[in-house]
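Sample intake sheet
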Amino acid sequence: MFASRIENLVESPVREILKIIDRPGMISFAGGLPAAECFPRFDYTSLQPCHLQYGPSEGDDRLREQVAQSLCERGLRVELDQVLILSGSQQGIDLVAKLFVEPGVRVAIEVPTYLAALQAFDLFGAQYCGFIADDPKPDGTSLTYAIPTFQNPTGHCYSSEQRQSLAAACDATGSVIFEDDPYRDLVYDECDRTPVCSYIKEVDWVYQGSFSKSYAPGLRLGYLACSKPLVQKFVRLKQAADLHSCRLSQQLISTLLDTQDDRDLIGFYQTRRDSFQESLQYTFNHIAEWQQPAGGLFYWLKLKPEFAMDTRLLLQQSIAAGVAFMPGEAFYPAGSKPQSSLRLNFSHATPEMARHGLGLLAGIIETARTGRVQQSNSV
């Protein structure tokens, strides 16, 4: 009755956790939620009756021009007709999966990687070849998926050498590079953010970004650019999926791009990151190791050996205590050996709430370790 690929479809752990974050008193470190106080004030007077009408599948030209110009400034060689406006960058992952992935196709991915990308690739039967930034290995793969700038979940930002090495590896092996770049505008420390796709010389490439993290996720708007041989294939897939993205959202974002200054937003999130770092050092210094991210929205904590555990087992207890987080195990493909780790979002909770929530979470981990030690000693 159902297509066989439905057997590969699983629930998103993030979406399930997000269902409970609005409970009174809940402190959420779970999803990549922007701070509501940073949502922009939109100019609704710019909306016209035409924005209620059907539009081109590629997106409205004015927004595409703005995106193309921005991408050229980043180092990509892009013309307007290579830009496609998406219904959120998650749609881009879906379109890429539809175009390149079928049962048994090997996809090179960072380990760990964005869990919703795994969800999309799994649906179409992908097999995985894992790599790390220092050692890209796309050999024998049709597609390479990477988040080089403030990676989700680790927050890692590739160096110039790592970016050029990944591009060279894809060129050498013929693996199409799919660069996911939704966090690049949220930069707090100096670092290289040059798109890997700008170094590609031979192979086809796909580069995508999002307006969700910098502006408003509820507008569900992102964008995709690609090498010319792929353009019409993506347009047809987009037509089959939803005809076109919301034109009201496109107009609001287009107007905002002409007027918005991101410095206040960046300053706000940098302050939250720095405050979160201080709270982590106070509550987690003896429990976990981490690197302060230069941008993005996440901290990636690796539990020290004496605290190592499957963090999924802590989640229900943590939620009952009023704290939501993302277990690190969710970011690994099936069959791999995940580390004992947690992904914590620092943008959503206030500094006071974050410090309190981190204290609660640290206490839960310590209690779990004590119980495990006592159980081991009693055997």
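Comment: The mean pLDDT is 92. Residues 351-378 form the longest helix (28 residues).
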